[in-house]
Structure formats: structure tokens, C-alpha cells
Amino acid sequence: MGNDTIANMITSVRNANLGKIKTVQVPATAATRGIAKILLREGFIEDFIDNQKNKKNFLILNLKYQGKRKKAYITTLRRISKSGLRIYSNHKEIPKVLGGMGIVILSTSVGIMTDREARREKIGGELLCYVW
Prior knowledge:
Elements: H1 5-19, E1 23-27, H2 30-41, E2 45-53, E3 56-63, E4 65-66, E5 71-72, E6 77-79, E7 88-89, E8 103-107, E9 112-114, H3 115-121, E10 125-131
Antiparallel strand pairs: 1-3, 2-3, 4-5, 6-10, 7-10, 8-9, 8-10
Subunit structure: Part of the 30S ribosomal subunit.
GO cellular component, one term: ribosome
Keywords: Chloroplast, Plastid, Ribonucleoprotein, Ribosomal protein, RNA-binding, rRNA-binding
């Protein structure tokens, strides 16, 4: 049984949204950094900080909420490709989430990118997660 850092990150963010917690700490890997950069660029989180403690690197994500009731910007975050079943797609078959309102995050040969960027670059890859 291996460590799935992407699934751990997704679960941590989902649980923090349910508890309306402002910050989340996740292990820092190249994949989690790439996902955090995309979430920041697309406006789902406020910012993230790369940090190190006891020779272990981790990211601190500052989640974004709106209004008095603290409604989360990330309503759904779901892992697509898992360690037991990898899901790949070419650029023509990348699914659209909510008719383009949400995003799909892919791992490609060029790096981690959104579905819109992958279609524009005509690159397929492994579908990591849905965000909306």
C-alpha cells in the first residue's frame, strides 16, 4: 500500500471545507504544488505557503470563503484517477465539468494543467481530479 499524496490533499481540503477551517496543511510534492498553483490561479484558494518543519516539506493552503455564512468556493473536489485504476484521456475526450464552470486537473507530459489548457495545447494525460 503506497502513499497517495494527491488523495490525502483532496481529502484534507474537503474536510476543512466541511468544518469551515481557514488553513490546511498537506505534504509538499511536485503534484500537490502543481494542484495548489492551479487552485490559486483559478480562484479556489486565497494563497499557499511552502514551509519546512523538522526536515519535512509541506504546503499550507489558505482556503477561500465568501459571506457571513462562510460559503466555500470549492463545493466539490473529487479524485478521478486512483492508484488502483488510472484514468487517461486524450485532448479530444477530456470531460467538461458543469459545462465548463468547473475544472478538471490533469497530469500531462508538460506538467500539471487544467482541462482548458490541455485542450488548447492538444495534450492528453492522466485525469487527477474534478473541482467545482
